[in-house]
Amino acid sequence: MSVLAGFANINKVPELRRRVLFTLAILAVYRIGAFVTIPGVDRNVMKAVVSKGGGLLGFFDMFSGGALSNLSIFAIGIMPYVSASIVLQLLTMVFQPLAELRKEGEQGQRKINQYTRYGTVALSLFQSFGIAMSLEALNNQDTVGATGDVVIHAGWGFRFMTMITLTTGTCFIMWLGEQITERGIGNGISLLIFAGIVTDIPGGVFSYFQTHKGSIQPLNLFLVGVIILATVATIVFFERGQRRIPIYYARRTVGRRIYGGQTAHLPLKVNTSGTIPPIFASSLLMFPATLANFKVPGMAQLQASLDRGDWLFNLFYVALIIFFCFFYTAVTFQAVDVADNLKKQQAFIPSIRQGKQTAEYIDKVLTRITMGGALYVAAVCVIPTIVSEYFKVPFRWGGTSIMIVVGVALDTVSQIEAHLITRNYEGLSGGGGRATRIRGRRDLA
Fold it and tell me: What is this structure's pTM?
């Protein structure tokens, strides 16, 4: 009841209410666009191709919220933006001008975001041309439940139209995500991926019961449900987990006042990188499929080897997740900067000298907990998928999907709670959910 009362408090904060409604409206626009078909194709044939192909086709369709099977203007989804972000963040580690831009604060981040947008357009053009070529190659192929041409009129006219349409759709999705981040609640890009995955759940449940009509095994359903609940509980436990390093502030006199002499802590999350590693890893594993459409030597064999559920896919997936956990943590959390800030504030860690030794200590602690966090993320993303393959559950949302859904939900709820607490209301998990104002604030108003 306290959680429901906490949600009721959202309506009492006009700004938060506007943000939540704006986010829901943007997500509705995104879902409507997933059903707008690109010109010159037969989406009924394409749905049969995706349902038969499975593997990476189904995985890509999941991240696009069914837009690929509908051959909609959002068929590419947000993955070009994710890929461009990967490239830019990698370059900030090795390219000095970009590294300097990142240190310039908000202004430098704006320039990096602008470069990311340019990269998104370039990758979208590249991927959309590959999709146009692959759609033409699907003509006259027999599929389950449908036979015919995916492309009605093949040729360069269709290819140019597809490139323009899909690139425009991806840019529009990118703009929608930025609008949610700026004017809504939560991370816009993550919420769009979240919406695409969640909308696939009812269809997956219906598909399972249709496929196993008359032969449903309650024990299998119970075991799958237990595994999903255990996965969700594990994700919540680790996402909330922190290593708190004690911090002491030295006393200092400013004018006639004495500041400091207090204790605090530096919280280090077990999973600092959040849901970024599985998203980045999935994006890279889908890239060979695009290169295969351009007849790049060896890509077709690599794509065939990376069939979702195959041991080679899982091996690469785990390796990429662990790499991106360490990489993204190193990019977003700079131990040297944290140590410098502590030194400027005349704060120190007990038994650790300020400056270089503090940075080394923080980096050592962060490396240890990141290793545990990386193994947790890899296990959560792979084990449920393996189990679902064993029980023959035809859901495309495995461990990766659950990780993204729960992670994004926790982040969004945390932001809502921050807005409520800022306005002096109880959070979503607070007691009683009653509005409690700090004395004097309303009186002054």
Answer: 0.74
The single-letter DSSP state of residue 372 is H
Q: Which two tokens stand for residue 265?
A: 């802590």
Quick check: 332 and 272 in contact, CB under 8 A? yes
Question: What is d(CA 100, CA 105) in angstroms, rounded to the nearest whole number?
Answer: 10
Provide block-wise average pLDDT over 10 residues at a time, the chain (445 residues).
Answer: 61 83 92 85 72 56 66 84 82 79 80 90 89 75 55 84 91 92 87 82 71 69 80 87 86 65 84 81 72 66 67 84 88 84 85 88 92 90 75 62 83 83 63 42 40
Q: Shortest CA distance to 370 belongs to which of 268, 286, 263?
A: 268
Using CA atoms, how far apart are residues 27 and 412, in angstroms rounded to an integer?
Answer: 14
Nearest to 176 by CA among 31, 318, 72, 296: 31
Question: Distance between CA atoms of 268 and 154, rounded to whole angstroms?
Answer: 55
SS3 22: helix
Residues in the chain: 445
Q: Give ∠ CA 170-174-177 in degrees, rounded to 5.
A: 140
Amino acid at 353: R
Q: Enumerate residues 6+ apart whose C-beta is below 8 A from 75.
A: 38, 64, 67, 68, 131, 166, 169
Q: How far is CA 93 from the centre of its chain?
A: 22
C-alpha–C-alpha distance, residues 327 and 321, integer Å: 10
State the DSSP string of 203-246. HHHHHHHHHTTT---HHHHHHHHHHHHHHHHHHHHHHH-EEEEE
Q: In the chain, what's the furthest Cα-to-Cα distance?
A: 85
Task: Write out the E strands in 289-412.
Answer: 347-348
